[in-house]
Fold each of these.
Amino acid sequence: MHTVADIGETITTSLGPWGAPSCVVVLGQGAEVTCHVGGRQADISPETLFGIASVTKTLTTVLVLQLVAEGRLDLDAPIISYLPWFELADPRATSCLTTRHLLTHTSGIDAADDFTDTGDDDGCLERYVHDVVCGSKVLHSVGERWSYCNAGFSVLGHLVEVLSGACWDDVVTDSILRPCDMGGRTRFRLARGAPVATGHRTNFDTGEVIADDHRPPRSIGPAGSTLLLSAGDLVRFAQHLMGGDLLPPELLTAMWKVEASSRSREQGLGWIVRSSDPLVVCHAGNARIFTAFLALRPDNGQVLSVTANGEGASLVAWALSQSLFPQGTQRRPVAPATKLEMPEKAACGVYARRGVTMSFNLVEGGELVLSSQLDPVITGIEEELSPLPLRRIGPTSFSGRRPFAPLPTVWDFGDFDQEGRPRSVFASRLALRVE
């Protein structure tokens, strides 16, 4: 077990000068729960609330599976069985899209990070699904591959609303937060005076860490925009979940079974799965001004949660997890074998998904450089990204790290035409070549 000094050093080293000012780490196993507060400005308490960003997806998944347990939802029935008005641009996709596809990020819906604000009232999710997701094209056939999709969890959130007869904020409060004695709330159900950390974002070009109170819209709450929890809350959630208080054993097993894979991860129902012995399941969250991480070992009840009011929760978590969650015999995702050694020139061109345009070009010396344009609807703020030089790391893969970004990003080119040109590029989200 880590000592307090170990955890403090890990926080300081992992966050570095560009990371979050404050970070909370909670370790839990049975009745033993230890907490450490660290960072450059450790002026927070163990129960301070943070935005947990995409860790919220694990709670939305539990709400969906509770409906399955109650016999009100079939994971493999078409979504239109429950939302008859739902439709995508491709009729075939509309007819075969299921809850399972949304939970496993295999829907292909081209609205992955569309954070359009559809209001703060209880009808915002229905409007988001109707006005933003409906009519979307699909970037790949439904179920064909993994590509992270926030919008899919907003669809799931509205599905929970329809089948439960209440708005998502109230359902998550009544079905998870209160039963698990979690002090957090959604931003729209937050008690006045609740201790909420001030968020921060990093300017990746200058390294400056800036206080920021930007709040993503309620319309993507089920994907990770509005839920405010403490690191202790996350441990309590995980312990109640593993203890069988939220789902029956058979659904816990199903939730943590590998359903889809990409180059770098294996996906269960709503959770990232490390299919090893011991099994470890986790989820990270990054909302620009808050980051969070939750990992747990179902075999012995061990839990790690990290919350931070800026960049770096995942780096802290991974540093600590090296000893908490031994690798064991792990089956790592394997990228499809290819004999193609794609020349840099073949990658050149423009690739796009909703809200993001990427231009890959060769500069003097033959170096591949990426220039990106982001629509404000994706980030919530105006942002210009400097051109990013890339280096080859595989036959069809390139990597680059923006200044002060926590980790490098890998771009995988694929779907080659007869002339050897890639028709797509993948960096956790799929984008297609623009002809």
Amino acid sequence: MAGLYIHIPFCASRCIYCNFYSTTHAELKQRYVDAVCKEMESRPPSPSQERERIETIYLGGGTPSQLTHDQLRQLFLYINKVYHIGDRPEITIEMNPDDVTAEYATVIQQLDINRVSMGAQTFNDERLRFLHRRHTANQVQQAVKTLRDAGIHNISIDLMYGFPNETIADWERDIDAALALGVEHISAYCLMIEEGTPLWRLTIENGELRIDEELERQMYELLMDKLTAAGYEHYEISNFAKPSYRSLHNSSYWQDIPYIGLGAAAHGYDGKRRSWNVSDIKQYIDGIERGERDYDYEDIDDDTHYNDRITTALRTSDGLDLGTLSERHRRYCLKEAQKFIDDGMLHIADNHLALTRNGLFVSDYIMSSLIMA
């Protein structure tokens, strides 16, 4: 069982906060799609299977909805040709709200894409302009309706908080607007200032843009309280889902399930090795066209695998299954975790080690304390 991730790096414009690999070179779209299809065919399946069995498919970016209808159809023609797809796979596409038309929604429904993830970010048009987002708040609402009308009943939206001068009341209005849409899944992230992004450069020029830590904590608490009260399950630090609507693909990352990564900058993992394609679209395309995939890799030893489990499984409400650890790693983990258990930051239930609510606020510190140096 595996997941399939395809990176579609094209964006019509760049958001000031994004540090994912993307490009505005739209003239390369067809060559890129051709290259991804060729990469699919050129990478052999695992030795134990004639074809990889794929349970989840995720088209991320960038902005996958920048592809034409025919380019999307081409990708799925090759996906079904190369891989063995499970009976009821979760198939997700990331879309910008302003790309959602009735025609596009019909096309993705015909391709059996059954989950859409949209970056709403905020329902305040002024803050959307600050982020250099292309859509308006009203377009998010219209996009959800259009997708519903086309038969898409698994919709996720991303929210962002921690804007300069944002108040608790501002954030509550965004949460309420998201809840009013009735979407099945909500991801929410504090605005991060990543080095090298336009937002980072703006910060250097104009001084500190971040809110203080106490206000950030209050916003996160409000998020948890309102979404859980509305019936959403808080199943990962930044992710909330209605019952039975967890992101299966993203959950595979946190549950140590292998996945295949295709496209420029895409990562893959087979349980023993992590690999990643070159983060340059022209270099990626040129390499694939020559029949030479340009990538790097890391072999994962036992200690690295343990560290990976700490920083992924502990993000989830299910926590880390201690039974999956070697005896050496289990002893080390429990020894380092004890002080956090005593302080009410971690707890153990059904042989799973998990963060408590208080632990969520210092999760990075806890995880770094449990990993092996």
Amino acid sequence: MKRKWVRIVLRTLLIAVGLPVLFVAALLAWGYVSDNTNGSMVSSGITRRYLLYVPKSYDKSKPTPLVISIHPAATWGAFQRNLSRWNDLAEQYGFIVVYPNGSGAFFGGFSRGAHVWPGGPHTLARDVKYISDLIDKLEAEYNIDPQRIYANGMSNGGGMAFALSCELPDRIAAVGVVAGALTTPWNCRLSRPIATVAFHGTADKLAPYHGAPARGFAPSPFSDILEWTAHVAQRNQCPAEASESRVTASVRRLAYTNCAAKADVILYTIEGGGHTWPGGKRLPEWIVGRTSDEINAGQVMWEFFVQHPRETK
């Protein structure tokens, strides 16, 4: 009965205020988003919290990779953990994963100098500083391999991961972007090539595959994903021509290779996929669209990360 009541309320919101607000309301109402952290620190004068997972196989005598996974807007690290299932991979492959909480449940990661969310101003610079400080903290507490620090995220978190490739290229080895909420212009203050892998559904209504005009919750236009991928390939000094292949019946792979510093750029297009994490925990399909199980974004991302450590000068 309770679930039926939630559906009625959310369908009413869909008619009244549209998909973006509905998406946030749905996440909250469905009970996926319960804040759960086990670490905190002060960065830029603000207490920031995070959720850390250290695999049972961790050996302090061995340098260990670190994966930073960033949540969508209006959620928390625990949501990202449940959605992406990175903990399972961390246990299987022996890396540490951390899920940082945004300030007020948001990250300013649209790769711009500043971005204003409904909850108030959240500057990119402050969040970049937080991630950098978090890396420092974890390096002091664990034997982190500095050549194998990776960032990824979904939606707004995917935008933040891309921003980190622009702002912290000397610390981040490679990034992954799932259903990225990416807006133009793409401002890369530092243009060092960073290996990038992305996943995006053609039926994503929140961050449309072919872009969308500016709207209330995003003051800049959403990027066309193919144009954004080509832009990243240009930044990474890849050859202009990309190769395309079919991975499964509904998953295509676009690859820019032979790039500077071996910084390949790969895009997986999920035909009919929604604003979801492929191979991850399913969100309500009637709200965010289909979650594909034909490809596991986390597994593919980790394999990509393993192949792309940060090159030393």
Amino acid sequence: MKEPTVALRGSTLGDAIGTSWFLRDVDGVRTVGHGGSANGQFAELLTVPEPSLAVVAVSNSSPDGIPFNQEVVRWALETYLGVVDREPEILPYDEKRALEVVGRYETNAQTLAIRTNESGLTLEVGIKPEIRAVADKELPPDYPPEHIGFLAGRKDEYLITSGGLKGQRGFFTRDESGGVVAVDLAGRLFKRSQGK
């Protein structure tokens, strides 16, 4: 369970092992974890096999449940193990690179829009209207535009730096010609639905 079997670039928790565990080195310590969310419910599990520690954070606070859970995990790592989970370095805004990823992306249930205002990138994600129309209960609100930045030393990987999705990592997928065709967010692949 300590060696990756499937590479999953850019996940907030790390690289995938099998189909459900994520490996990540934090301050020189190997961690194994998994997280998830559904309709305003957020959960995160992080274990440190050596030395032995497990942290579970669960919240039903939308839109700030994800950042809350991440802070609980960071606090536990530092308090009990002296392990500091540092913020990754974000590259300065690069307009040419930003324009490569600007566009609309979607899954069967959600839409994702990436925009630039010539000084930064934003990511906005929401539930498709047709999904809301057939839901038998009220679904959580869409996330407003949140700032994102490219990670230093990690090709086509990004970090959300503000709002309710703050701390989530993802990556862009390119086709053989180098064009961006999809974006990963929280392990979900959103395919590009229209031009830049």
